[in-house]
Design a protein that fits this description.
Helix content is 48%, strand content 11%. By secondary structure, the protein is of the alpha/beta class. The chain has two domains: 114 residues, Resolvase, N-terminal catalytic domain (Rossmann fold), CATH 3.40.50; 57 residues, Arc Repressor Mutant, subunit A (Orthogonal Bundle), CATH 1.10.10. Strands 2-1-3-4-5 form a five-stranded mixed β-sheet, sandwiched between helices. The longest helix has 34 residues. The radius of gyration is 28 Å and the shape is elongated.
Length: 199
């Protein structure tokens, strides 16, 4: 059985699924087996897509007019098609000519999978390189420090004067975890001072 899925964005002028519907019907999809969404592709809660994925059974083929009608990204598209494969459901995109029921379509799908993996590796590489560059410039990744300026100077002075961390937290109104993280960033205590002296 051929099952069709259509989507148009809900943004801007009213859009119609007529073009997609005509293409899917011409490809042999029964009008009773069409599902549609009027929603952005970035949305996770697309009711029509959820219904289509729940409707298909082993041996069926999910058909779309174009790849970008199904997935919000390449990785999302691949996740959906892999989920279909686990149910023994094939996938066909009319515009790109992808059809996992054929050897060439299956090959194209694997190429897409390799590209998605390459894209993830590049993204991870950029993050690691960015963090390394920031460290070389003296910046540390993550959230900005919660305690800065005169307040931080007063806290360090109090600790150097013998006040315990617990007392600092009470007197300055800071959480212990926030204090510890901030002190770790500053390198306190100095080697000549004990880490904590009870008051």
């Amino acid at each position: 059985m051929l099952v069709g899925y259509m989507r148009v964005s809900s943004d801007g002028d009213r859009q119609s699924t007529d073009l997609q519907r005509d293409a899917l019907l011409a490809a042999g999809v029964d009008a009773r087996h069409l599902f549609e969404d009027h929603a952005s592709g970035a949305k996770d809660d697309r009711l029509g897509l959820a219904q289509a994925l729940a409707f298909v059974r082993a041996g069926d083929v999910l058909v779309v007019w174009k790849l970008d009608r199904l997935g919000r990204s390449l990785s999302h598209l691949l996740a959906i098609v892999n989920a279909l494969k686990e149910k023994h459901v094939a996938f066909r995109s009319l515009t790109e000519g992808m059809d996992t029921t054929t050897a060439s379509g299956e090959l194209l799908f694997h190429v897409f999978g390799a590209l998605a993996q390459y894209e993830r590796a590049l993204a991870q590489e950029r993050v690691v390189a960015g963090l390394a560059a920031a460290r070389r410039r003296g910046r540390i990744g993550g959230r900005p420090p919660a305690i800065t300026g005169e307040k931080l100077e007063a806290i360090i002075a109090a600790l150097d004067g013998g006040m315990s961390k617990a007392a600092v937290c009470r007197n300055f109104g800071v959480k212990r975890t926030t204090l510890i993280e901030t002190l770790a960033r500053t390198g306190w205590p100095s080697p000549s001072l004990p880490p904590d002296v009870p008051t």
